[in-house]
Amino acid sequence: PPRTASLPASPRLRRVETPPFSVVDEGTAYCISMAIPGVRTADINAVLDEHTMHLVGETKRRLGVSLVKARVNRRIELPADADCESEALLLTHEDGVLNISVPKRARRQRRLRIVTPPTGSTRDAHLTRTSHTHVTHITHAHATRTSHAHHTHVTRSTTATLTRAPPLPEPLVEPLASA
């Protein structure tokens, strides 16, 4: 019978899975932690699209005859009140743990000033338009909730004033007489 040479053992591919992540609401920020064992910091790519963070990374290492591949491929939906535009958004990776700190948006309170429309009589029986300037005071609460910054925002708007309409004409059809 023909003899066949034995092939050398092929390296095995072993996959390292990442566990789920945890999210903690710390009042002024969300802290997200996930273990990514074996993935080097330089191999992690983080992209933020609106309120969705996508983390992708892969590190390959030879361990004897085995090839060890560690990777992450996660999509994280951030809460609606997360301030994704903040410069304080921070990702740190140390000892196989990725920590993400996402500040919350400062809660906005608006104090509105109520104005009295200018007095004046309109004798015409139609819709007249008058222009008013309204001043809106906007208060932004800082994340520390200990100090407030006050800003004044002036907007221009048009208010419609409806004046008294003329009386309706009498009906042209007489009511039916009862028999």
TrEMBL record:
Residues 142-179 are annotated as: Disordered. Residues 142-154 have a biased composition (Basic residues). It comes from the Eukaryota. Residues 12-121 form the SHSP domain. InterPro entries: A-crystallin/Hsp20_dom, HSP20-like_chaperone. Residues 155-165 have a biased composition (Low complexity). It holds the Pfam family HSP20. Belongs to the small heat shock protein (HSP20) family. This is SHSP domain-containing protein.
